[in-house]
Specification:
The chain has 120 residues and is an alpha+beta fold. It has one domain: Nuclear Transport Factor 2, Chain: A. 32% of the residues lie in helices and 42% in strands. Strand 6 and strand 7 form a beta hairpin. Helix 1 packs antiparallel against helix 2 and helix 2 packs across helix 3. The radius of gyration is 13 Å and the shape is globular. The N and C termini lie far apart (37 Å).
Length: 120
C-alpha cells in the first residue's frame, strides 16, 4: 500500500469536488462497487449514496475545503488519517479522522469517520 497517501489525497479531493459529474467519475474510480461510508451524521451505502452524502456536506458547509492534517498511518489494507474542514488557508472549523478499509485492488471499500471538533 505504498500509494496510500496519494489515495487519501484523492479521497479528500472528492469531498472538495463541486462539479457533480467530475465528483461522480472520481467516486466510481476510487471506490469499490458496493462501498460503505459511516460517520456520526449518517450511513451511505453504495456509490450513489456516497455521492449524495458528499453533495449534502458541501451544501451544509459552502466555501469550506477538506484538507489532510498530518500523515496517513497505514498497515495491511487499513489506513487512518486526520482531516480538517475550514476556509482555504484559514483555521479549521471541523476536525475529524477516518479509518479506511481498502479492497485488494487498492480502492476504498469502507470508510468509518469520526468527528473530533465540530462547531458549537
Amino acid at each position: 500500500m505504498s500509494d496510500v497517501q496519494q489515495q487519501v489525497e484523492r479521497y479528500l479531493a472528492i469531498w472538495n469536488e463541486t462539479d457533480p459529474a467530475a465528483r461522480r467519475a472520481a467516486i466510481d474510480e476510487l471506490w469499490t462497487e458496493n462501498p460503505v461510508y459511516v460517520d456520526p451524521l449518517g450511513v451511505a451505502e453504495g456509490r450513489d449514496a456516497i455521492d449524495a452524502f458528499i453533495g449534502a456536506a458541501q451544501k451544509q458547509f459552502p466555501g469550506l475545503v477538506f484538507r489532510a492534517a498530518g500523515a496517513v498511518d497505514a498497515h495491511h489494507d487499513v489506513a487512518r488519517f486526520t482531516w480538517e474542514l475550514g476556509p482555504e488557508g484559514g483555521e479549521a472549523m471541523v476536525v475529524g479522522f477516518d479509518v479506511a478499509v481498502f479492497a485488494a485492488d487498492g480502492r476504498f471499500d469502507r470508510v468509518h469517520g469520526f468527528l473530533d471538533k465540530v462547531p458549537a
